[in-house]
Structures
1.
Amino acid sequence: MILVFIEHSNRRIDDTSLEALTVGRQLADKMNVPLHGALVGSAADEIVARAGEFGVTVLYAAELAQPDTYAPAAYAVCLVELLDNSKPQAVIAAGTERGNEIMAHVAARANLPLAANCTDVQPGADLIVTRLRWGGSLLEEAKLTGTSKLLTIAPNSVPLATVEPTRVTVQSFAPQLSERDYRARVTARVETAAGKVSLASARVVVGGGRGVGSAEGFRELEELADLLGGAVGGSRVVTGLGWRPHHDQIGQTGTRIAPELYISCGISGAIQHMVGAKAAKHILAINTDADAPIMSKADYVVIGDLHQVVPAIIAEIKARRG
Ligand SMILES: Cc1cc2nc3c(=O)[nH]c(=O)nc-3n(C[C@H](O)[C@H](O)[C@H](O)COP(=O)(O)OP(=O)(O)OC[C@H]3O[C@@H](n4cnc5c(N)ncnc54)[C@H](O)[C@@H]3O)c2cc1C
């Protein structure tokens, strides 16, 4: 049996989990075994029906005392219980922050290897996986061993494929959890301020780096972003210095952006930063150093002091808009 961990919200399976289900279905077909799903919370009718469209025959629903509290260790306990009871050939989750986090806990508890961010899986006694490394700049082919193979699927790497809908049997279970499993948990959610677009979905991103010089220096970047209906982000240097909150960080260890236009101001363009910006359709780099690495990666460059260039762009936009 192949088991897929399903992330869901508002009675809807997340697209990234549908990708994991697609891979799970294809793997199950090739190995001639059934596909089962697992989720935390109640299995709403819409979720059950959608799971059936991806070929799930059994859906395990873990009933937790605190179903709305995300706690990676608690979620992992649910999967480990299923793993112990039904010994699946593989457990697959989406390569989201949560999917990777939960599966890392599962791997540690079950003492099994985990291959994260896979883009392709081929069956066999050992699975052959292709996976993203170095923030996606390298593709690795690896052999995954273990009694049950644990893997996550890199988001946006697999086209969704539905099948003739199957009949889904829902099996609820209540895993044994302790307070320790809730030591690390989400205690609050802070939404982007009303009217502001999120960094990950913004069509225009104005990014600032060390060259901005201070937290106050970001005011002009904020103004430019507001004029363009965009969001402000930054390099790790600026989040490290406390000029911007961590959730504004763009890059390997921050948010990955995919705007139509990324205006990068006073950012050198280190590989760890560019990994988070490589899905940007166009990059405009403003930098005093013509040899900064970002200059060779940008579509448009302005060699100059951002504190002169950004106000000039703002003035021009205002003038054109009257
Ligand atoms: C494991 C690891 C993970 C990392 N993850 C990330 C990550 O997720 N995101 C990230 O950003 N970094 C990350 N980093 C750090 C990364 O390597 C760089 O150190 C960082 O991106 C540099 O930030 P910066 O471009 O703001 O600063 P610098 O590299 O110091 O560049 C500042 C730039 O500003 C220019 N400048 C200075 N003054 C002006 C001015 N007045 N006008 C215009 N230009 C000016 C300079 O010419 C220079 O090019 C990571 C590093 C490691 C080791």
Note: DSSP finds nine helices and 16 strands in the chain.
2.
Amino acid sequence: MKQLIKTDYMFKGDIEEGITQDKFILVENGTIREIIDNSGVIPEADEIIDARGLKVFPGFIDLHVHLSATAGSNLAQSIVEKNEYSALRALHYAKKSLNAGFTTLRDLGSNGYQIIALKEAIRDKWVKGPRILAAGRPLTETGGHGDSPFSNGRVIDGPVEATKAVREQIKAGADVIKIHVSGGGTSPHDNPLEPQLNKDEIDAIVKEAHSKFRKVAAHAQSNAGIRNAAASRVDTIEHALFLDDITCNVIRNNNLIIVPTMVSPIMTSLKGKDAGVPEWAIRKASEAVEPHSKSVKMAKKNGLKIGFGTDAGTPFNFHGNNGKEFEILVGSGDLTPLEAIYAATGIASEALGPSYKVGKILPGFNADMVFVEGDPIDDIVVLTKPSNIKRVLLGGIDVDIK
Ligand SMILES: [Zn+2]
């Protein structure tokens, strides 16, 4: 099955190259085969897709979601409900995100293995949904960010347990390992400014995960926690709230990617009070907004790679509204619109690693694409409105937008 997509405006996911015009994309059995100038010889195809007049981007990647979480105000919901139930609901959330243009989702932790099961059911074609990478249970120290009345992480103390916990996640089918190296916003008894897990524990996790070809994503808010994790060469620094220039250097020298998830504390601080989110969680979120903005600006100034993640599932941070992060990266993080889109395409692709052929419109990559009405380079807000997402291809096949 050959498809030919005609474009007059395309971003391939490469910021050096920028926007290209008047290209044809040849897709064969769901994989991009060739990019052709429209002045050259036009190959035969079974289907012609005319995308001229729309802006074509690689399918967006959200590097940080929690499909098991509802975005509601009841932080304990995921503890009291069955994992089997949240797995079924997660399929609904995954489809909403797909329809919004997010063809790949990286789920960074749930109370069990339900999102791994969802990923496998989609892979085996029992149900339709986006590409998913899933972490299983996050690794956290006793009393850490993932060990509270609101979170059932895999508790580890010491390098031996750390190694074993990585192996457990991989045995369950995890694609990526999630760890908590600092306090956080939704844990009542810790402080975002404190580091969690010792350096020898983080070292053990990274060694074991990398030996099994898994990336490590570290929830890291405090500067000390970020620095520990960066020095241990985790792969992505999630949240990256309290950066300074020295820590930026460690991150850059190790060629790591930060995933700020700026939308998450903003939504909790804006909407949490009326909805009954606990006071302490609103306070932590509110205290994060300003440092977050400073940190992302500092990261940009220091030349760090910035990836796109939303932490969707946290209070009022709804699955399917993932595009909101584009607007905030530009408005509060001082990224250009193209840099924000690059965060969700080329950079996010690099964060997943070379075995995942997503996030770029290049030969050999999956034909995951988003066709957008309006010009997000002129006005990034275009990407926050699902109605501007006119067509989404997942492996060359149309997804059900409505
Ligand atoms: Zn998260």
Note: Residues 64, 66, 108, 311 surround zinc ion (CB under 6 Å).
